[in-house]
Amino acid sequence: MNNDNISYIAKIVADEVSKSRVPTSITLDIAKKLIAKVEDKAKQMGVNAVVAVADAHARPVAIECMNNSYIASYDVALNKAYTVVALKMSTMALKPLSQPGASLYGIQFTNEGKIVIFGGGDPLIYNSQIIGGLGVSGGTEEQDTALSAYGAQILKDIIDK
Predict the structure, then answer these.
(1) Is the domain covering 23-160 a CATH 3.30.450.150 domain?
(2) pLDDT digit string, tens, across residues 28-80
(3) Is 28 exposed, middle or buried (0-12, 13-18, 19+ CB in 10 A)?
(4) What's the distance, CA 23 to chain centroid?
(5) DSSP secondary-structure letter at 113?
(6) Per-residue DSSP letter, 33
(7) What pLDDT, in 10s, does the model give residues 120-145?
(8) 3-state DSSP assignment of residue 51
(9) pTM of the model
(10) CA distance linking residue 3 with residue 26, whole number of Å
(11) Residue 16: which residues within 8 A CB-CB, separation 6 or more?
(12) Could you state, in order of their start, the residue ranges of all structural domains in the chain?
């Protein structure tokens, strides 16, 4: 075997090992790190949020309630995390589609009422694949949307560390 063959085989093995470390669903460790980052950002914004993370099957992985967050925000955050995985889009993208006269009008009454049609939920995408969902509730729609978008944006950095 020459050096070119050895290099080729080493590259194939390295690629396969790398692929095996790519998460296909959010893990508890990643969810905890993501929640901590989103909570830090919420503190900077003056928001007492509830932050929920669901896995690739829309099942809850972790949820945390910041001190003095609204009790009602628990279910809202959890359902936002569910919605974004179940429908493969952010809750803000769903909002115009679910208004009267739009193609998905009434969707919020399906799935046992778990579909949320206002901002604050983003799919968690890694390597072009949805590996989970993030739901944030506790501030205004704009604040919740900014926080969930922030979380979705920093996911890759958290995983790649």
Answers:
(1) yes
(2) 999 999 999 999 999 999 999 999 999 999 999 999 999 999 999 999 999 99
(3) exposed
(4) 14
(5) G
(6) H
(7) 999 999 999 999 999 999 999 999 99
(8) strand
(9) 0.86
(10) 39
(11) none
(12) 23-160
| Cβ atoms 142, 45 nearer than 8 A | no
Q: Are strands 129-137 and 60-65 parallel, antiparallel or unpaired?
A: unpaired
- The alpha carbon torsion through 80, 98, 42, 131 (nearest 10 deg) reads 40
Supply the Cα-derived Rg of the chain in whole angstroms.
18
Where does residue 74 rank: exposed (0-12), middle (13-18), buried (19+ CB within 10 A)? middle
Give the CB-side neighbour count of residue 91, counting CA atoms within 13 A.
32
CA 50 to CA 72: how far, in whole Å? 9
Q: Which two tokens stand for residue 67?
A: 């001190």
